[in-house]
Amino acid sequence: MGADGSAEPSLLAVPPRPNGTALVYCPGYGAGAAPPLAPAGLPVSALTERGYLLAAVPGAPGWSVTEGIHATLSTVEALRRRRDVERCIVWGQSMGGLVAVAVAEAPDAGVDGVISLCGSVAGPVAMLNQALDAAWAVAVLGRWEKVDLIGEEPDAQRAARARALLRQTQETELGRARIALASAVGQLPTWSQPGTPRPTTPAARQRQQAAIFEWAVFAPRNDMRARAGGTFSWNTGVDYAAQLARSGYGDLVESLYASCRGDLLADLDRLADAPRIAADPQAVARMHAMITPTGRLRVPALTVHQTGDAAPVVTQAVAHRDVVAAAGRSALLAQRFVERPGHCRELPAELLGSIAELEHRLDTGDWPEPAPGRWGPPPEHGFLRPSGPRDGR
């Protein structure tokens, strides 16, 4: 404990020759247990050789974003009392990337800038609405019964049941077309599996969506539902034909339906006519209040997303860009994209490059031009269903 009773920060490494900058890591989601203090593959030697002090925010199990924000601010406050710290950069992955963005909006946080890697930067309501779209669509079209879509049952039980049904659905041509349709409205990538070449045929692209479907769509909900106090996702009023048209995957879905002589229009009509899921307005409000970025950045923020990520999908970045623009803070935001499948698989060079770009912005007031060959183009297609109205009706 510090002299004033506050918790001392968790130091990962102290450089032999400090450059004055502390890097504060926010961990991601821990299912049933606290996540590790440091991510796998952290280039400790490369960072300390450059003079960075490395600190971490102790994580907690579950969707602990409120705890994460408070712990991050406390860690930064403690680091600011050190003589060898003149600048604090907060960075995180996945849920920790969302915490980093939230800290960038906090007043008088003592943070100079943030880096969000593979972060759920549009917030949990939008992210889980998107997952619900895909889960609900495949359940309706496949006539799945007794599948919990809203997180009342334990997550492992929900996922196991969905996995078995998904395997059965994938066995037929029409089932595969329907999984592709559900994946399209949920914006699942067609290149999702690390270590595989980019798929080019409709069948190969669909297999990549199916491989990630259960993990991405039946994402952990039970803990989030408990914290919200009820159902915080809904699909009342959603036009799934319109979502397919905007998804960028329309050609893929049409090709798969045509190859098995399935009736895409009839399936879209079934989705239009099926009973919907409504949310508990108070639960939606509580989830928004926990952490939904407003776009009102107070310090520079750099976000990095892999185009083949499925948790969150890359359109989270597009939604975050839009709310930042609406808040008039676009000059504080830079976004980078890596053309690669997988979740939170950034290379050490990409982390080092992100730090260098953010420090350039802090030193000069301008974002540098993206390094050639390191970053890919932003996504050309896609959407994120709005997370409002905030009461979910």
Could you please describe the fold and organization of this structure?
By secondary structure, the protein is of the alpha/beta class. It folds into 2 domains: about 10-125 and about 290-365, Rossmann fold (3-Layer(aba) Sandwich), CATH 3.40.50; about 125-285, no CATH class. Helix content is about 45%, strand content about 10%. It has 14 helices and 7 strands. The protein has helices at about 45-50, 65-80, 95-105, 125-140, 155-170, 175-185, 200-215, 220-230, 240-245, 250-260, 265-275, 280-290, 315-325, 350-365, and strands spanning about 10-15, 20-25, 55, 85-95, 115, 300-310, 335-340. The chain has a 7-stranded mixed beta sheet with strand order 1-3-2-4-5-6-7, with helices on both faces. Helix 6 packs across helix 7 (about 200-215), helix 6 runs antiparallel to helix 10 (about 250-260) and helix 7 (about 200-215) crosses helix 10 (about 250-260). The longest helix is centred in the middle third of the chain and has 18 residues, at about 125-140. It is globular. About 50% of the residues are buried. This is Alpha/beta hydrolase. GO terms for molecular function: hydrolase activity.
Attribute tags:
AB_hydrolase_fold; 2 domains; 14 helices; alpha/beta; 393 residues; Rossmann fold; hydrolase
